[in-house]
Amino acid sequence: MKLSTRDAPAYFAKPDPSRAGLLIYGGDAMRVALRRQEVIVNLAGPDAEDEMRLTRLSAGDLRKDPTLVLDGIKSHGFFPGRRVVFVEDAGDGVAKNLEAALAAWEPEDAQIVVTAGSLNARSALRKVFEGHPNAFATAIYDDPPTRAEIEATLRSAGLSDPTRDGMGAILALAQSLDPGDFRQTIEKLALLKLNDPAPATEADVAAVAPISTEADLDDLLNIVAEARTGEIQPVLRRLAAQGVGAVTLSIGATRHFRALHAAAADPGGPGAGIGKLRPPVFGARRDRMARQASAWGRARLERALALLVDTDLALRSSARAPSDAVIERTLVRLAMMAQPR
User: Fold this and answer.
1) How is the chain split among helix, strand and coil, in percent rounded to 5?
2) What string of DSSP letters covers 222-235?
C-alpha cells in the first residue's frame, strides 16, 4: 500500500509492528537514512542492534543469496523484543526476492524495512510494496521539514519550548540546511542547553549554527561595507597567506552585497529583509548587516554590484592584469563608495 507523505511522519514516529514491511525511497540518501533510522528505533528500540534483533543486508548480499531475507525474518535471537531485517540500497533487481519474503511473512516474523534511491512509477520494487495488503511504500522528497516535524525533533532533543525568536531562528535553519546538518545543529543546541532550564533563544541558536565563511573574509567584507578603507590591505594579506584567491574574494563580496541589496530593497525595510536571507544570519551579525544595508541604500548597492560583476569578468578573462591588484582596487573603490556624502 502507498503511505502518503502527509501520513508518513506519524507512521515513522509510531510504526505498526503488525505490518510485514516498509519501503522508504527517495533521491536524497541522507533524508531516507534519517527516516529509516527513526522507524527502526521506534519499532525495535535503540538497543536492537546490540541485542542482535536487527539484521542488516545490502542489495548485493541479497543478489548473491536470495534466501537471506527469508532466513532473517524467520530467525529468533536470544533477546526478546521486536525484530527487524533491514535491506539497504535496494533496487528492482531484488524485487522478486523481497516479494517472496513478504509472501512468506507471518505475524511473529521480523518486519522488513527496505531503503532505495529514486524509483519511478514503473519500478518493480515499488509495485511489490504498494501492491501488498500488509506493507507500505513511501517516498521521501527534498522538501524542507514542516513545523510539526521540526517541533518533534526539538521534543526528542529536550528542546520543546524555545523562545519566539529562538523558534524563528530554528525554522530558518531548517529551511536552509540539509537534514543531517540540521539534526546535528539541534543536537549541539541540546548540549548547549543541558542543565539549563531557560528556553533556547536566538543567541543560543546563533552560537551553534554552522558558519558558512571564514572569519577573516567576514571581517574584510564588513570593513569594505563600512568604509574603513585603511584596514583593507592588512586583512587582504592575511587572507592571501591562507591561500584565499582573488576569485574567491570576488564571489564572497558579491554574495555579501547581494544580501545587502535584497535587504535594502525589501518593502518592510532592511531589518525585515535581512530576516528573510537564506542561509539565515543571526544576532549581532544580522543587526550589523541591517545597518550596512540601510547606510548604503538600494541605488548605491546596485552600483556596487555592477562594479563587482565587472571585476569578476576581468578576473576570469585572459587579460594579464594582476588578479590581486584587481580585487584590491575594487574593494577600495567599494569602501570609498560607502563613505557618507
Assistant:
1) 60, 10, 35
2) HHHHTT-GGGHHHH
**How does pLDDT run across 206-221, given as a tens digit for each residue?**
788 775 445 568 888 8
Strands (E), the chain: 21-25, 54-58, 84-90, 111-116, 135-139
* Number of Cα atoms under 13 Å in the Cβ half of residue 10: 5
Measured between alpha carbons, how far is 191 from 197 in angstroms, rounded to an integer? Answer: 12
Return d(Cα 39, Cα 37) in angstroms, integer: 6
Q: What is d(CA 57, CA 46) in angstroms, rounded to the nearest whole number?
A: 18
Say if residues 34 and 177 touch (Cβ distance below 8 Å).
no
**Is the whole-model pTM more than 0.70?**
no
Distance CA 232, CA 264 (A): 24
Tell me phi and psi for residue 115, to 5 degrees. -120, 150
d(CA 202, CA 287): 13
* Residue 78: DSSP 8-state: S
**CA-CA distance, 218 to 200, in Å (whole number)?**
26
Q: Tell me how far CA of residue 66 lies from CA of 25, 59, 96, in angstroms.
A: 21, 10, 9
Give the model's confidence band at 68: pLDDT under 50 very low, under 70 low, under 90 confident, else very high.
very high
pLDDT reported for residue 56: 93
Rounded CA-CA distance 43/11 in Å is: 10
Main-chain dihedrals φ then ψ at residue 55, nearest 5 degrees: -105, 120
CA atoms within 13 A on the CB side of 324: 12
Quote the CA–CA distance of 4 and 67 in Å, as a whole number: 31
pLDDT digits (tens, 9 = 90+) for 158-193: 887 898 888 888 887 887 677 778 888 899 999 998
Burial class for 278, CB neighbours closer than 10 Å (0-12, 13-18, 19+): exposed
- The strand pair at 111-116 and 135-139 is best described as unpaired
Mean pLDDT value of segment 121-127: 94
